[in-house]
Write a structure and sequence with these properties.
2 domains; DUF4547; coiled coil
Length: 204
């Protein structure tokens, strides 16, 4: 006599075990996807950090190698200082209640790393002025490098170089990030905000 096939109860139990196995596998895949996404995000942040470090190093090298005259140093540092002051002023306008605790640009840069409100105000200020974080890094690097021995040029002194300083920047500054940052700084000081700065490669 032929044996009976699997009972419905047996088939149902088997299907239930298969479904549970699939659910377990799906959960594992979801966990792997989440882990991969977190790892990808960390790698992207690390890459951005490395890229930023490379840009900063290149600016430092450029400042060490470029032989700036006293006039060029004074002019460039002046525009860097006034642009950073303008950024600070815009941030304080957005955060009047925090103004007493943000007396300098350095205090804003320090606080923005830990305070979301300050960070958003800073990012908004840069956007309002047409600047980027790369511009600010370049200008701060210039100031650290030459600020202690540069002479500040007031508006009357700068008047002699209006319309000429951009040409001077393009001619003597070799690093693209520093050059573009200075060109935007001139626009911020002289016009009120920075527009598009064409790279040397595009102009040629």
């Amino acid at each position: 006599m032929a044996t009976d096939g699997p009972s419905l109860e047996s088939l149902s139990a088997t299907l239930s075990r298969v479904e549970l196995k699939f659910e377990s596998i799906n959960i594992q895949f979801e966990e792997l996807d989440e882990t991969a996404a977190r790892l990808s995000d960390r790698l992207e942040k690390h890459r951005n950090t490395l890229d930023q470090q490379v840009h900063e190093d290149q600016v430092w090298v450029s400042l060490l190698e470029d032989q700036l005259s006293t006039l060029e140093t004074n002019l460039f540092v002046t525009y860097a200082m006034d642009t950073l002051r303008r950024c600070h002023s815009v941030v304080l306008g957005k955060l009047p209640d925090l103004a007493p605790s943000l007396p300098t640009v350095a205090s804003v840069l320090h606080r923005k790393a830990r305070n979301r409100q300050v960070r958003l105000a800073w990012e908004s200020a840069l956007q309002d002025l047409g600047l980027s974080s790369t511009d600010i890094t370049a200008l701060c690097t210039l100031f650290v490098m030459h600020g202690c021995r540069a002479e500040y040029f007031g508006p009357a002194q700068r008047q002699h170089y209006v319309g000429k300083v951009e040409v001077l920047i393009r001619r003597v500054v070799t690093n693209p990030a520093l050059r573009d940052g200075l060109l935007r700084a001139v626009q911020v000081v002289e016009v009120g905000s920075a527009g598009t700065v064409m790279s040397e490669a595009l102009e040629q």
